[in-house]
Amino acid sequence: MYHIGICDDDEAFCWQTEAYINTYCKQFCIQVETQIFTSGQKLLEYIDIEKPFDILLLDIEMDELNGISIGQILLEKAITDSTQIVYVSAISGYSMQLFQVRPMDFLIKPITMHDISHVIETYCKYYDNTIHFFEYKSGKSIHKVNQKHIILLQSNGKSINIVTVNGQNSFYGKLSNCLEQLNPETFFSTHKSYVINWNHIAEYRTNNILLSNGFVVPISPSKRDLVKERIMLYCERNKPF
User: What single DSSP character describes residue 157?
Assistant: First the structure.
């Protein structure tokens, strides 16, 4: 779960930003907890007691204690080692003041859904190794799926059927190209037409595998030994399947 803080003395901005975050995270099945602060002092009081945020969206122009001062305090407390600060402002031109704090990003108000998407995707890519996305194009739309929620991919001629915990979709492509995107520790081809997520295995059999959604996928004779070896390795690591 991501812990995201929003600190701005404009309550309307806070609520709108929180709505953008929740919309994005719901779309990509990311668990998130948000916390809103309307003053820098309240933020610092919270941080002194609770765990640090993963991402902190911090307004620069606040009364009493501004965002740059807060960033410097967090830097002195070494909290910026675990918290990625994203500054927001209606004014550009703060580059020199922000250099010492080393924020992850700087956004100009009014911010958009695209800005929030970029922030979370940047965090996932560079600061969190636990979330990986799989991207594919279906029609004119580009889809991004949390790999943890993919159950299997099935090749059907020139199209691929992707089955996730939220449903299924199809797109044109090759399984070999899909495997290049997927985490090799989690995904494996049991058959020329199937790639499965090992964390969604419900039952292993000699000739096939039962998945968590009730699908049964075959195991090619040439891959039986390798599949058995991988299954035993997962058992040793106590990973659920």
Answer: T
pTM of the model: 0.58
For residue 165, the Cα-to-chain-centroid distance in whole angstroms is 16
Decide: helix, strand or coil at residue 128.
coil
User: pLDDT by residue (tens digit) across 123-147?
Assistant: 887 777 666 778 888 887 778 788 8
Q: How far apart are CA 27 and CA 171, in angstroms?
A: 19
DSSP the chain: -EEEEEE-S-HHHHHHHHHHHHHHHHHTT--EEEEEESSHHHHHHHHHHSPPPSEEEEESS-SSS-HHHHHHHHHHTTGGGT-EEEEEESS---HHHHHTT--SEEEESSP-HHHHHHHHHHHHHHT-TT--EEEEEETTEEEEEEGGGEEEEEEETTEEEEEETTEEEEEE--HHHHHHHS-TTTEEEEETTEEEEGGGEEEE-SSEEEETTS-EEE--GGGHHHHHHHHHHHHHTT---
Separation of alpha carbons 136 and 172, rounded Å? 9
Dist CA 230 CA 10 (whole Å): 53
pLDDT exceeds cutoff 90 at 26 = no
pLDDT at 238: 46
Query: Which residue matches tokens 């550009």?
Result: 92
